[in-house]
């Protein structure tokens, strides 16, 4: 999905979290426990010492920002139980995969990673291997058939059970599952409860940067697009209580977080009812805008039909609101949108774009597109290409349709577009998007933008990690990536950067030094 792996909905990324191994640098790996005949007492002492040692956790996360957030919570809860992170899978006592089911490719990646552990688990049966997240909820017990050495399978709504499951599985050697109810498995309220997550626990060290955080305001999805597995794996759409959201935002701000991204599958459909009061995303934005310390508010991912005028007005009127809106169109053909059951027409989408531009003239909009959806003709694809060109998105995430068992499309519509055609259409949309992105980025040449500095760029991490002056990366208020030369002290600051070069995906600039700030017009983009 995209150019920028960290930001938008459902982008496939794999992260292995690095460890800081603590007190016991050469903690006896249980795998290497010396084979010596201890006297009984000494053996007991050794065992209790072993039990008191920090256990090592390896966790790999694939998928969207929801999964990243879930992993943050899982690490937080396990840290409380004495776990330490390691980035060495072989050294870990517990190995967890937080998985994604949106496309087959993401699942195959997880099964391959599991396959690589087969021999390891044979040699070290005491290690616990867990599959978490959407694939766990979707495949359930069949994961044990495909990878019989997996110990625990935990759906995204049951993650709070992980510490117990790990301990039980380790002590009994049994395979265990914790899964939420299916969409038709009982009364709605019961199903909803079974999908609830446990957000208050945070582990700031798990965030990509200390001054940026995701904050979940909604779980699940009720849109049931015919291609999508999410309503089945994440359950019914539920808004989180505004008081909890506000409390969490304050905690985050207290920890030094400057940018909060509110997340939900269809974040702008958020609603929470209590008595006679209904709280919507617009209300939340006003509420969170008042939190001291928070400098930027973003929200992803939006559903086109719920992009209401009051929400757009809030983005316009609240200076902390990012002017970046991710609103997936998926297709530019009304017939395809109908087959996808997206609930809007291309005309509705165009009208939404018009309202966005009218209300927030400098808004940057990005989109997701699926190419090669069931029965997509050349003409239908051309309509998508036309929409992409007309809307001039900041960027587009393009996906080849991947049939997902359990969805309406997989039951009723043949996956009949050949792979080569999907690939060609995918490349074509990306080619068109790159032209637009480059043209639009050119408008930034010579302009000064405010950039929240995130850290060393990928290139700097690879090539000059220890340099005093190194390439840093950050984002503008409209989510454009900017790179420039700076020092580590600038990480976390919001700096004026003047742009002197561009690519389709990046603005390249230089820090506007103080004596020049007064003389140049800053463009708050
Ligand atoms: N095949 C391909 N892409 C999909 N998406 C969701 N389901 C599928 C699927 N079965 C894409 C949509 C969505 C993004 C997160 O993933 O474009 O917006
Ligand atoms: Fe999936 Fe559609 Fe819900 Fe997005 S809105 S999560 S594509 S069902």
Q: TL;DR?
A:
This protein has 525 residues and is α/β, with parallel strands linked by helices. 35% of the residues lie in helices and 22% in strands. The strands form six sheets. Strands 1, 2, 3, 4, 5, 6 and 7 form a seven-stranded mixed β-sheet that branches. Strands 18-19-20-22-21 form a five-stranded mixed β-barrel. A three-stranded parallel β-sheet has the order 8-11-14, sandwiched between helices.
Describe the 3D structure.
By secondary structure, the chain is an alpha/beta fold. It is 35% helix and 22% strand. It contains 19 helices and 22 strands. α11 (281-289) runs parallel beside α12 (309-317) and α15 packs parallel to α17. The longest helix is centred in the last third of the chain and has 24 residues, at 419-442. It starts with 13 loop residues before the first strand and ends in an 8-residue tail after the last helix. Iron/sulfur cluster (SF4) is lined by residues 221, 223-225, 228, 230-231, 265-266, 303.
